[in-house]
Amino acid sequence: MNDRTAWMSGRYGVMSHWLFPGVLPERGQPASSLDQAVEAFDLARTLEDFAASGAEWYLFTLGQNTGCYASPNAVIETLADVAPRSQDPEVLTAQVRTALGRSIVQELYPGGAEMQVMSLDPQLERLLLQAVAGGGDGAGIEPGLADTLVREAVIAAQRQEEVGLPVVLLVPGNLRTLLSRFLRRSISQLKVLAHAEVPESRIIKVTSIIGQRA
Predict the structure, then answer these.
(1) Residue 76's pLDDT band (boundaries 50, 70, 90)?
(2) Which terminus of the chain has a smaller tally of CB atoms within 10 A, N or C?
(3) Are residues 155 and 132 in contact, defined by beta-carbon separation less than 8 angstroms?
(4) 117-150-90 Cα angle (round to 5)
(5) 23 vs 165: CA distance, rounded Å
(6) Which uninterrupted H or E stretch holds 82?
(7) Quick one: pLDDT band at residue 1, thresholds 50, 70, 90?
């Protein structure tokens, strides 16, 4: 038992495989469409049966090898679309995050709240993009520049927290992974968002610009 399976603690649990078209129903005709199958699912009876079983956890699959799912799933749909063209984990992660962008932003800024974020100075941004293009993992960032980036990011993060704002840095997509890994060593609460993850309807206000004194 580890952290990923701790929820399975207890005597026993229940697992259901949801399939469409699946097996024939107890009564009536089989569902003729995916929507019909989803709407016909007897959730109340399922929960009653689960409660009566005495099981301590319930694992319900969204779908199986039929390619039909019981619920919209942006992650699966995005991976299915992108994976044939690229197996790069960073590319796949970026595409999934973009698909989930609305949910990611909503968690950080509930409702229609204005997004008050930190940003990078344009010159610093160009230097970092050049480093990523040259070294891939950002290993080419000059040490002095890296120190300045960390120092100013820490100061900006503290300012965000002092006024009760989320510690969020908004950057170009090519820099999101690099800066998330690099800066979170010093700012554990930092969230780094890519521009493509932010819905067009959101209003963005830059509260701090990192790198102006670099």
Answers:
(1) confident
(2) N
(3) no
(4) 70
(5) 51
(6) helix 74-82
(7) low
- Residues 129-188: pLDDT tens digits? 988 887 655 556 788 888 999 999 999 999 999 999 999 999 999 999 889 989 999 999
What is the token pair recorded at 138? 């950002």
104/38 same-domain check: no
176: number of CA atoms within 13 Å, CB side? 20
Mean pLDDT estimate for the chain: 85
Q: Is residue 81 in a domain?
A: no
Alpha helices in 85-199 (DSSP H): 89-99, 101-108, 122-135, 143-162, 173-183
Number of domains present in the structure of the chain: 2
Amino acid at site 174 = N
| Co-location of 65 and 124 in the same domain | no
Query: How would you classify the pairing of strands 115-120 and 204-210?
Result: parallel
52 vs 8, 9, 48, 59, 117, CA distance in Å? 18, 18, 6, 16, 49
- The pair phi, psi for residue 209, each rounded to 5°, is -115, 115
- The pTM for the full model equals 0.69
Phi, psi angle pair for 170, to nearest 5°: -105, 125
Amino acid, res. 52: A
Q: Is there a domain that residue 91 lies in?
A: no
Same-domain pairing of 61 and 119: no
Residue 51 lies in domain: 6-71
